[in-house]
## 1
Amino acid sequence: MASDLPPFDPATAAILMLKHGHSGWLGMEYVAHGTDWVELALPWREDLVGETGSGILATGPIVSLMDMASGMAIWTTTRKFRAVATLDLRVDYMRPARKGAAVNGRSECYRLTRSAAFVRGLAHDGDPDDPVAHVAGVFMSIGERAR
Amino acid sequence: MSDADLLAACERDLPAYARSLGIAIDSIEEGSPVLVLPFGKIVEGRPTVFHGGATSGLLENAGYGALRAELAREERQQRLKPINVTVQFLSAAKSRPTYARGRVLRLGRRNANIEVEAWQSDRARPVATAVMNVLMASPEEDGAG
């Protein structure tokens, strides 16, 4: 029974969740979390740059990072894992990340309804006060009816 | 430029990230490249479903492809800088290839607005769409526009 499970802990869940699939390929790492937010990191890698020779991470992996951090922020807030689907995600790019820099993504779940979760966050390359990108999104829970 | 030449140019312009993700140019349609991303472990989110981030990467690259093709037709050489992207996820992209094609809705001197659609087996039922705003900097002026 789901109710017997311990509350969702992003630090522990990250060990498994970030090892496989797309997140595993990108090499995402857990950084920190609070009651309603999660921060992950995306280490720099030559084959993830957006413009050959620029040394700057492409925007695609940053969207993946924010999507993953947002999902984990939702499960951290609800204290349990349930399948969610991204409804929409908006990313505003403030500036390029620094050459060779890892990018951190922090997302918070600021509002939960029965079926929707609203998130906002930012990506930074060392200083959260000088972000690389701002993000806003909405997620929907899925598969509830079948259970 | 012929479609074959444009396809070759689009292949050449794919960034390292797009190549490592597995994105390729499928064809040229009405002057814009159709990009394809095969399903595999490295794009997987939930089991058997594309990760939203991988789909977004495909959409963004299709948007840039459409814009570069448009700029090439106007013989303009400008550096592209992302302003923003909004992705709408319409249905789960399953374990088969996903295609995407962009359309430049407005091409200004300094910025462009691009609409992108991604689909799988049924073209009439897109799995995701995106709207992108892109800044275009002239080679000489490289600061924020």
## 2
Amino acid sequence: MTLLVNLLGLALIAVIIWWFWLSESRAAKVVGRTSLTVLVNGGVYAPDRIEVATGQPVQLTFVRKDASPCAAQVVFTDLNLSFDLTTDKATEVNLPALNPGEYPFTCQMGMYRGLIKVT
Amino acid sequence: MARAVRLSIDGMHCAGCVSKVETALISVPGVTNAVVNLAERSAMVEGDAEVSALIEAVRATGRDADEIKSDADEIKKEAAEMAHYRRLLMQAAAAALVGLPMFVAGMLDILPSLDSATGQIIWLALGIITLGVMLFSGRQFYVGAFKGLIHHSATMDTLIAMGTGTAWLYSMAISIWPDAVPEVGRHVYFEAALIIIALINLGQALEMRARGRTSEAIKRLIGLQAKTARVLRDGEEIDIPIKQVGLGETVRVRPGEKIPVDGVLLEGHSNVDESMLTGEPMPVAKQAGDEVVGGAINAAGTFLYKATRIGADTVLARIISMVHQAQSSKPKIGRLVDKVAGVFVPAVLIIAVLTFLVWFNFGPEPRISFALVTMMTVLIIACPCALGLATPMSIMVGVGKAAEYGILIRNGEALECAGKLSTIVLDKTGTLTLGKPQVTDVIAFEGSEDEILRLAASLEAGSEHPLAAAVLAAANEKGLQLASVEKFEAHAGRGIRGVVEDQSLFLGNAKLMQEQGIALNANVETRLGKLAESARTPILLAAGERLLGIVAVADPIREDSREAVSRLHGLGMKVVMLTGDNRHTANAVANKLGVDDVLAEVMPADKHAKVTELQAHGEIVGMVGDGINDAAALAQADVGFAIGAGTDVAMESADVTLMRSSPMGVASAIEISRATMGNIRQNLFGAFIYNTLGIPVAAGILYPVFALLLNPIIAGAAMAMSSVTVVSNANRLRLLKLGGRR
């Protein structure tokens, strides 16, 4: 019994490491179009990984369903941009053409996390 | 860039109207698409056309239109926030209402034991009630945790859901199979789960209230905007919503009213209170030709002015936008914390599992109970929010506080760097002085003083030199009739020459006189020395080889420059004055102000090099200038301060814009920066210490020595209060008192 509990515990640690740090959710690709809707609900952005082609301006429409104050703002730290999100309302975020790289977007506290990957 | 505008349309009755309005909108230059919705009486227009043009186009069809915009959004946002606040309180109350009686009953030992079948049934019933209340009061945590999980993201919701979920599952398991654990370990934690949820909801409600106060500065700025404007159309004065004011329209402002948009005063005069925009406490006198800015209050007098900037182009709109962006930006320290916050929750989950295993393997009996309780407490006490809130809340209040003083800080990095500056370089003209030279002395060696001034002004009429304006203004003030100039020549850096009334005249500095072979006797030298000592620039006038007289010009020092320099010294700054003036005049001004060093005779193009030179000597340099002539030097400095009521270039390029034309703002900005960064450090230290001490204590590190274990309810209370404490500490910045006057 003790061995089983220990093995389960260690397996759980391995799962936590793999699931939260090593694997990533599937990215939504903005290829062949210039806009994408991002739903803000339940503490997450959906999709939270967005792939964009280099040099392509993109319009993200954030729709906030989450009433938590944490969801009230989306911040693109590396781009020095931030936008207020109103509950149940679409907020258009127009991003310029970006150089290759990763551009995170988060809530003000960095708890809701998303990533734009420019390839 | 293309954008969408939503208009409300009045006076539409049929499909025919729809077609007409759509056609009118599409025909407006810049419109790429227009869709009219008859049922909603609205239109969605895409493109980059001005809203006023769209409204005019609809009006031309005989209908009326208005933009559906910010006010409604703001009201909706506030209503949604209030509803969420009430919901949090209600959820906290519901969980407390069930959890607290269970807690008290447990303390009084009046609940049945699990040894009997009746006791088991009662506990199972309580477990089901608890589950219902948990789902009502803590639904958002469980939904958030689940959604986060499928997106490979672990948040505070994950910790709360796992902590309270474990408490409930363990308690239910004990209630169903009490014999699975030794008798001493048969303790249920339904009340703990509920009270934790109540406390966290309450904490979030309090945090929400406190967060609302952090954005008061920007709300005040938004509140400055007038709702309506009285415009002159077809000879009639009509009140219209501010959004409908067009460029070039004539607007009337009456006493006590807010100025609706930016413009130039056409008729009338008044004193205007710009204190909310610039921090300038005294009303500013305005007359025809002067600029007025939207949001300022007309203290007395009625006037007409022409709208020159509307909508998002007004100074106030740009200030709001800049403050808003700056409030969301992060200094380097904040970006580092973001990285920590990103890995924090999974790390806590791992620590929780390790805690369980350590207690399960090495703990005293009942091991399973100890293992579960400590794991649960670790999950509950960890607070990523305190860490995440530490930087943005302080930045929000700090940047807002600066805006109250008419100091616009571009971003978090500028705010962070301003506090680290070691040297402040102040451009003399326009920063330490008013930038408006005036004639102070006229000395005549031949003829009258007025004659000297008249001849000097006649020559200067063709010059573009800044001192020329002062000489011309003085002559104009005395009503002197100027003569025409022939054969005008400018000698760069020395002066000018020309023929006035058949006399060949030279006007310039001593160097020009020497070049022309004009001897300066001891008396003249003494006079020149005295003028230089009192920071006055002498301009010598000569006819042929005869010296006729001297006109002395000085740029008056701002009344608060000396105090500003003294405040900067008090902050440990080395203060350097930079000027194109000659060394004598520069030294005289420097002595009056008490600056540490003077860089005189610096050509405008060399200012940038001087800043670089100081940086090469290890100084962290703040450069203060007008933002136009000094743009390169401002950009080179570690922090560029643009002084002078928010000129376009300054606001776009400077790290810090001082809306009020006073160097005092530099000291205020540094004080705010230091206070904000200190506040961030306090917050981060608190959040860091809280988590690094709280988590090991929750894991039971004190148990082997002191037999102390943290109650999960206490952990819940600590967690709920840690975020509130961080936000409240950030709010302390609102009470910051600065060293000098506003």
